[in-house]
Amino acid sequence: SDGSIRLHQMTSEYPLMQWNDSTNGRPIIALQWALTRPAVFFVLDASSHIYIWDLLENDLLPVAKQIIPSENVVTMALLGEPEKTNGLLGIALAKESGQIDIQYVKEKWALP
């Protein structure tokens, strides 16, 4: 609810990494790991901002941020095939109106 993200190892109750206030205090609605690139994850906050984290590039801050204009996004899901190395990774965004948008991610965040 405060925008904090914690990375845990299954064998410990304490986080390996913790990023406080990663969304400027806005609640996190969804967080998903990339299906095609293990070090990348995506965060959706309550103000319809999507943050892209690539832990191999920068483990302190997101490497990109995208604002989805015009309407609130209520959830997201990642689309891709982990067994394929074609670099196709998409994000399905469900909006408040019921509309679904699909956006493709740049190859540099999708390639294994």
UniProtKB/TrEMBL annotation:
GO terms for molecular function: dynein heavy chain binding; dynein light chain binding. It comes from the Eukaryota. One of its GO terms (cellular component) is cilium. One of its GO terms (biological process) is intraciliary transport. This is WDR60 protein. It comes from Ibidorhyncha struthersii. The lineage of its organism: Eukaryota, Metazoa, Chordata, Craniata, Vertebrata.
